[in-house]
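Z., the sequence and structure:
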Amino acid sequence: MKIIDLRSDTVTTPTDEMREAMMKAKVGDDVYREDPTVNELEELAAFIFKKEAALFVVSGTMANQVSVMTYTQRGDEIIVGRNSHIYNYEVGAIAALSGVQAMPINDENGMFSLVELEEAIRPENIHFPRTALITLENTHNRAGGVALSKEYIDEVVDIADRHGIPVYLDGARIFNACVALGVEPSKMVERVDALMFCLSKGLGAPIGSVIVGRKDFIEKARKMRKRLGGGMRQAGVIAACGIVALNKMVQRLKEDHENAELLANELSQVKGIVVEPVAVRTNMVYFMLLPGGIDAPQLAKKLLERGIKISVVSKRRVRLVTHKDVSREDVIEAAKAIKEVVEGSWRDG
């Protein structure tokens, strides 16, 4: 049975060019900084974002946690979105690893209220923790994969600068945002202090993320990576895929966005489904199943019988993600299957 996997862009498989690059990669010991392919990947990442240096790590979560560890001291506080990945999906690591507490503020549409953001910054007071970091997420997963604009990011940095606080961007899907908005990556993030991006989502590499920022920040982050057990040896075999991803896989993200828009349009015509709107569509479609018909776990079970995999967010909320291994034809087939199952549940009821 053919499988159409819409659960996440993390399920992407490496391209033939990536597999070839893995086989031919020159390697060395990366802890000694002697892996030429890792060095090349880090230099390429720093060049793309016009930052001073970069650090290759095994995952987006490690990238986020290494960065928090680098910017903070135990007992500090960081400002996060209430719906952000770093707050919801990293096993409480900011508390467990860095010993910092979160100040979550509303980011339902992917953005903070700038007034609420400034109010969340702690004034100097013996009773208060220090506000050590402000974090953003772009694209914002739980807000529908919406792309945050450069103008909004710069407004956040303006506030942070007035208070002497660094801004860190969880840019797991930053290239999706850049492609959707038509903004160069270096311009999008020119004012944030540091960011990370994932190679293993829409860009199709099998593993890895990269942190970029100032040289002194990256040097400290390298030690934090080692502390977490993230020091790698002959890592060029996976870094080689990252180089291919950055050189060959960025502009094709537009195809994923077009497929997601097609999917959203098809599903918006289905009885019993409400597609969640987003200001700027990237590669995600979230929808709600109305009461009276099938719920999300039941829908997932019935679709799996047809070879279609979806992500259940809650009892009635579903996420679908397009990526390089999902074609336009796959999207049309999946939309048809969802329509049949959902509308069929209303007739059966």
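The CA atoms of residues 169 and 195 lie 4 Å apart. The chain has 14 helices and 13 strands.

Let me know what you think.
H.
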